[in-house]
Amino acid sequence: MDSDLLDLLACELGEIYRWEEECPGVYYLAVLLDTANAEEYYIVLEDAPISQEARAMGRPLQSAPVLTYLLDSEDGAHTAVRYELLKYLTLHGLPPPKGTTLLDAALFGMERRPDYFGAYPVPFLTPWGRTLRHRPLDNGVYWIETEQCLEVMAVCNPIWDGELSEGLSELGQRLAIEGEMGYLYFSKETACVAVWELLRTRSELIDAGLIRKPELMNAIWRYQPGYALGYNAQEQAGLHDAHGLLLYALGSEDRELEGSPEYMIAMDPEAGTDYIGFWR
């Protein structure tokens, strides 16, 4: 990248303290905002081997004829650029950066940009036989009816790897043929605790009627009472108080950790344990 372009980018984005060419016309850029904050970008030039579909996701700059993709942006546009630059390296027999693969890039992108990559595929085979029917709870989270007439939940990696606690990862089952990047499978009796943890970022599943919360909490107490006891003890101790834990980690002891009965796993004698809102 020539010095004139770097100067233009610095004027609009901030002080550039690191840049690297990832493939022809695609650059990684690290920008210093102040002494404590920085941002990372992909910069795509006009002659870069990037598709029009991926270009449409980029943000143009006023000062330079480039497209920018913020790496921690919620829109996930950078995942398409990451995939296409790795695809370029693969097609030209060039080694990818250490620790990265084209498959990893696609699987990560499916969660953030299913409009570009497509949704996570529904698994055809589970530990309880082949899939006969399925309903999506979310992209990569599928409720499945198997040929053994059992209901199971399948959670795709990287969702289970990033959102489920370590104990739940051990509670689920995997298929050896899928490898480490495959699905984690839960029977209906163990899926209740996995659904509970997924609801931390998917409360809309309750609003849409796909999950019935009173029945879900009853199911946890019936099938996984040890989890309910441990979770409620942590809530009482304030160990789910994310803001308080952050302040404590930063050295502040002025604010005590807080818990609330509202967020505990309760039992409802008026509700059953059938927590899935379809196939009734």
Main attributes of the structure:
36% helix; 12 helices; five-stranded antiparallel β-sheet; 280 residues; alpha+beta; 21% strand; 10 strands; 2 domains
What does this structure look like?
By secondary structure, the protein is of the alpha+beta class. The protein folds into two domains: 3-117, no CATH class; 125-263, no CATH class. Helix content is 36%, strand content 21%. The chain is built from twelve helices and ten strands. The strands form two sheets. It has a five-stranded antiparallel β-sheet with strand order 1-2-3-5-4, sandwiched between helices. A five-stranded antiparallel β-sheet has the order 6-7-8-9-10. A hairpin with a 6-residue loop joins β4 and β5 (67-70). α10 packs across α11 (225-236). The radius of gyration is 23 Å and the shape is globular. The mean pLDDT is 89.
Secondary structure: elements and pairs:
Blueprint: H1 3-13, E1 15-23, E2 26-32, E3 38-44, H2 52-55, E4 59-60, E5 67-70, H3 77-91, H4 102-112, H5 114-117, E6 125-126, E7 129-138, E8 141-146, E9 151-156, H6 159-163, H7 166-171, E10 183-187, H8 188-198, H9 204-207, H10 213-223, H11 225-236, H12 242-249
Antiparallel strand pairs: 1-2, 2-3, 3-5, 4-5, 6-7, 7-8, 8-9, 9-10
Helix pairs in contact: 3-4, 8-10, 10-11
